[in-house]
What we know:
By secondary structure, the chain is of the alpha/beta class. It folds into 2 domains: 2-149 and 315-348, Alpha-Beta Complex (Quinone Oxidoreductase, Chain A, domain 1), CATH 3.90.180.10; 153-287, NAD(P)-binding Rossmann-like Domain (Rossmann fold, 3-Layer(aba) Sandwich), CATH 3.40.50.720. It is built from 11 helices and 17 strands. The strands form 4 sheets. Strands 3, 4, 5, 8, 9, 16 and 17 form a 7-stranded mixed β-sheet that branches. It has a 6-stranded parallel β-sheet with strand order 12-11-10-13-14-15, sandwiched between helices. Strands 1-2 form a two-stranded antiparallel sheet. A hairpin with a 2-residue loop joins strand 6 and strand 7. Helix 4 (150-161) crosses helix 5 (178-189). The longest helix is centred in the middle third of the chain and has 12 residues, at 150-161.
Amino acid sequence: MVAAVFHGGSDVRLTRVPVPAVAADEVLVEVAAAGICGSDLLAYRGLGPWQHDPAHPDGDGHELSGRVAAVGERVTGFAVGDRVAVEPIHLLSCGTCALCRAGRGYLCAERGMRHGKHVHSKGFAEYDVAPAGQLYPLPDHVGLAEAALLDCYACGVHALHLVSLPPGAPVAVLGSGAIGQTLGQVAQAAGHPVTLLGHRAATLDVALRAGAAGTVWDTSTATGRKDRDAAAGAFPVVFDAAGSVDSLEESLRLVAPGGDVVVVGVHPAAPSFDPFLAYRREATVRWSNSYGACVGGVPDFRRALDLLAAGDVAAGALITHRLPLARLPDGFRTLADRDAGAVKVMITG
């Protein structure tokens, strides 16, 4: 089969490799769609904690969906041809520790371990394999490309669960990329008016069309900065989905006294902020790490799928670019180009 192999930084090569072997409890998935995540882009740029080691090139791609191609001998509930979304296997956990029992397997010390080895999904390929427990059957009306965005939506579901908001309370979201916009859609579906801040007009236009925000402020313009500055202290909760050097400081300026700042975006370098501003606001700053099942034992991935199936979020509107696997390097270049207007670049089979 053809698969992308990552040799470090922007060195991404389409290579012919063996189809993964299927263990007794696993399912082989013919990949139909795989999204390029913001964390993938950081690695491509040589930034952040998840860079590829040139000495040990490997596959990647954790936002994926497809069709069942084969099942292991102990697998029940799935058949060849079934349409599925795959919860990424780097979120596998031991299942028995106190954190796992509380639905917080994303914090488990054994996260991402399987049979004593670190594992991760490799959806930028014609086929990938996963334990059957990581697969979610898709309703017929849910598109495969849209389902590949469920990982992003699950992050938004989890981030919203971390705070307590009265009905109808407004929130601000910093960042107009896929994580910011999926979170915005989730918050709006929960009845919270979203103001989304960014500095790319094209992606802010997508946010309005996709229902990711009711209001957008383009902070690359004087008008957008004026609106932002006038709203200092106005939001009970601010989500930092930008992960830029100054986004935490900007979030602290927007949050109301006693409010919450939830950091959802990955900061590849230490953020800069004024601790006295946080002190004056008496703000709580918390980090949101992936997702799990910490509310009622229901997986956040399942909640995300329910939102998508009900039409409460519009995943298709966020897919700005669709490219075949053979053009994956072009997909990375597109997402890296701030003038391309990309929100989600989807690699489709």
